[in-house]
Specification:
binds 1,6-di-O-phosphono-alpha-D-glucopyranose; alpha/beta; Alpha-D-Glucose-1,6-Bisphosphate, Chain A, domain 3; 27 strands; 25% strand; seven-stranded mixed beta sheet; TATA-Binding Protein
Length: 541
């Protein structure tokens, strides 16, 4: 064991989901080691600790895993559980932490950000409940990283993590496990595999785009082998270190091949994609896009058709920028709907306390109390189970939902890699105007409230400030400005816009058209073009 003197890096502060930086930043001498030591110090693990380690297979994953194992051994961890070849999807890692009662896990991923030598890398710590470390832990990680003077590492040859089995590293036992088996078994306990198998055998056609990211092996095993979907249902199934040069973000822009197929002639009945680390999902019907906010509401409204949720839901939680569609379902079901800041870590306490069963975010994330992360393939199986039970098209299921609950028109405009100073100034400019907005008219609607969202966690009493600027209208419409906490270059400004339409005769508009007056008002209020030089978003969802 070696103790290596080091000096702190000043940029090692976790964002919305761990530390995400360019690969080159992580390849600097001591950079990864410093952050791993900060995690291990902050985690304050007991002497017989078990740690789960895995990642999405992106460039630098394998090298980083060897370093993490050597450092875990040197820091007294007794048992490490590693996915074969260093692969574990984020939800599978969360499940493994819970299943094996590990003390925590280190997950390597920059999620939906591109990979490869010039792409992004990331690392985050999950705690014993299987979920991302809450803010009180990430704050200690940041403090430790900023004051570190040394790290500990075991001098050892690389372990053969391609082989399932047990290895010894110093005083630590390293167990290399198949990444898929336990996760697939969990899915079988939640969903009616028999009914889905019948649906898939009935001529129903689906396509799953794994985007050359981590879900390929999971989707092949579950959809093709266990559920009998024809070979080739899962495309781009091979996880590649650079995701085949693509951007593994399942949205209308980056999952373009799937979108083209689903909006083309002879489109399959159902299409889905997942992201780099397998926690996001996008769901499509034939020539029909399901907005993630609607998806959460629809899963909630149909939950009792699915075996794992047949007893009903304790409650629902959604992030603040996610549309209010789920709130309407919760009201109809007579259950609570919680509004949390952006970041899956904020759902952990509510799930642990049994206050909510389903959670979701506008950023293509949906999940439940089965793990403590959002779960892409789980959402796909939930949809398939509903379709198998209802035998209706995706479009019909969504339209019937709107008819019953009204439609929440929704869009998110992302402006990526904006100059960071200009982006912060724009947010300040909006903030300064907020106090004077209530009672005034914007986009032909009266502003009811305008604030900077703060969250009081009802379980542990912690408060999180500055979670996004909201402008809420009398009609229920909302305009929200927020800076992303996951970008790695400049700043990403997110503009979220929502309106509510109860009249089914007005449910057929394109969301961009329906929301145009609010979008224009937001652009004018923020002086957007002049301040950023941008006239159109990088990504529209
Ligand atoms: C992460 C978080 C999500 C969050 C998303 C976007 O997802 O886990 O909770 O909604 O980032 O965050 P931001 O708007 O700050 O960029 P993922 O899939 O990237 O891990």
């Amino acid at each position: 064991m070696r103790v290596v003197p080091t000096t702190p890096f000043l940029d090692q502060r976790p964002g919305t989901s761990g530390l995400r930086k360019r690969v080159g930043v992580f390849q600097q001498p001591h950079y990864l080691e410093n952050f791993v030591q900060a995690i291990l110090d902050a985690a304050a693990l007991p002497s017989d600790a078990t740690l789960v380690v895995g990642g999405d297979g992106r460039y630098h994953n394998r090298e980083a895993i060897q370093v993490i194992l050597q450092m875990a051994a040197a820091n007294g961890v007794r048992h490490a559980i590693v996915g074969q070849n260093g692969i574990l999807s984020t939800p599978a890692a969360s499940h493994l932490i819970r299943l094996r009662k590990a003390n925590g896990g280190i997950i390597l991923s920059a999620s939906h950000n591109p990979g490869g030598p010039d792409g992004d890398f990331g690392i985050k710590y999950n705690v014993a409940n299987g979920g991302p470390a809450p803010e009180n832990v990430t704050a200690v990680i940041a403090e430790r990283a900023a004051s570190l003077t040394e790290y500990r590492i075991e001098d050892s040859a690389d372990l053969p993590i391609g082989d399932v089995g047990t290895h010894q590293l110093g005083g630590m036992r390293v167990e290399v496990v198949d990444p898929v088996t336990d996760y697939a078994a969990l899915m079988e306990t939640l969903f009616d595999f028999g009914a889905i198998r019948q649906l898939l055998a009935s001529g129903f056609r689906m396509r799953f785009d794994a985007m050359h990211a981590v879900t390929g092996p999971y989707a092949r095993e579950i959809l093709e082998r266990r559920l009998g979907a024809p070979a080739g249902t899962v495309v781009r199934a091979e996880p590649l270190p650079d995701f085949g040069g693509g951007h593994p973000d399942p949205n209308l822009t980056y999952a373009h091949d799937l979108v083209e197929e689903m909006f083309g002639a002879n489109a399959p009945d159902f299409g889905a994609a997942s992201d780099g680390d397998g926690d996001r999902n996008m769901v499509l019907g034939a020539r029909f896009f399901v907005s993630p906010s609607d998806s959460l509401a629809i899963l909630a409204a149909n939950a009792t058709r699915v075996p794992g949720y047949a007893a009903g839901l304790a409650g629902i939680a959604r992030s603040m920028p996610t549309s209010g569609a789920a709130d309407r379902v919760a009201a109809a079901l007579g259950i609570a709907c919680f509004e949390t800041p952006t970041g899956w870590k904020f759902f952990g306490n509510l799930l642990d306390a049994g206050r909510v069963t389903l959670c979701g975010e506008e950023s293509f994330g949906t999940g439940s109390n089965h793990v403590r992360e959002k779960d892409g393939l789980w959402a796909v199986l939930f949809w398939l189970n509903i379709l198998a039970a209802r035998r209706e098209s995706v479009e019909l299921v969504v339209r019937e939902h709107w008819q019953r609950f009204g439609r929440n028109y929704y869009t998110r405009h992302d402006y990526e890699e904006v100059d960071a100073i200009a982006a912060r100034a724009l947010i300040e400019h909006v903030r300064e105007q907020q106090a004077a907005l209530p009672g005034t008219t914007l986009a032909g609607d009266i502003v009811q409230t305008a604030d900077d969202f703060s969250y009081l966690d009802p379980i542990d009493g912690s408060v999180s400030h500055h979670q996004g600027l909201r402008i809420v209208f009398a009609s229920g419409a909302r305009i929200i400005f927020r800076l992303s906490g996951t970008g790695t270059a400049g700043a990403t400004i997110r503009l979220y816009v929502e309106s509510y339409e109860p009249d089914p005769a007005r449910h057929d508009l394109d969301a961009q058209v329906a929301l145009a007056p609010y979008i224009e008002a937001a652009m004018a209020l923020s002086d957007f073009v002049a301040r950023t030089g941008r006239t159109s978003p990088t990504v529209i969802t």
